[in-house]
Task: structure prediction
Amino acid sequence: WKITKAIPSARWPGVQAAVHIAKIWMVLGGLAIEPILGDRNVSDIDEMLSVSSRVKWTKQKLARSKDQGFIGSYVLNTDGFTMLPEEAANLIAKDKRYKEVLFPYLGGKDITERPDLSAPRWVINFYDWDEAKARSYTEVFEIVERKVKPERQKLLERDYSTAQRRGTFWWQYGGDSKGLYAKIASMNRVLVVALTSKTVYPVFVPTKQVYSHALGVFAYDDDFHFGVLNSGFHYRWVLKYVSTLKSDPRYTPTDVFETFPQPPFSTEIEKAGKALDDNRTNLMLSQQIGLTSLYNRFHDPEDDTDEIAELRQLHIKIDEAVKASYGWSDLELGHGFFEIGAQGIRFTFAPETATEILERLLELNRAIYEEEQLLNPSSGKSAKKKPKTTKMESDDSLFE
Result:
């Protein structure tokens, strides 16, 4: 069978429900038909309903990105653990020890809809403590005992280990990303991204708060990584490899971030990243709009206001800096407004350029992965296979 035409995502016609489908045309045999993907002719269409790769390689997780990307805490019975900031303040006023177990609670919609990216709720956090230690924070513990325990203990009726654990240790979260909080303990800020959102641009937020499981958290506090992860290179990698909910990308740190081959450090990326962060923060606060509303304007060809035009130029500067760091000076990025599948119109690279960039990133993923296997064969799942490439002298050699 050969796919001769594909529309990767389209709304189900004739109804209001937000249902998306894929449309596929196939032939059996050697019929010579030039494939069409969306509205353009391509060389071949693969099983992911995208242009077949010339690399013939399946992306792999890279050791250098391990333990840098996390998913936030799965609180479970969230309403029982959370409260208004005023309630938390009143408890802390009664006993300052409660500061040790009360924190702002940041969710996905908070960073996409709130101009200041702040947490509207606070949350109780007893970590992995035993009951005796948690109970010593009397008033706070009583809240969880009253609101959470009855529901959690119903889980004891189920006969699988996760439910049993959650029912037994009812004062703890359903799943806590312990590695995350240990990793960022010394930082003042980190990068976060909403895991399900059309806006897949990370933002800086303060530490010393609990991040919900609707957030991906990157253990970076520097402008260079802000620039890289806000670049069009990362954006197109995301759109290529994530799954979707309706038309919204569903970001997965392990499958997307850990496979994305980042460029070498560059002061130009660092400078461009800081400029974007400063501009975007000021724009959201001055306009009193969230990240989603801002990027709806960013991708709207009809919005030619000065502030949005400047924002587009800042993204172009980041992309040019990232391109230079990869050593791909031959590429003309060709920024403009293009139809990108279920995403609709987006201000991004020209489709042909995006295809070439994805090919090169996949090649780079392979080169880095195989080099890592040579240096540390036990680090990857393909360690038993002898890599085909020879050992490279340094990371920079991958970009020459």
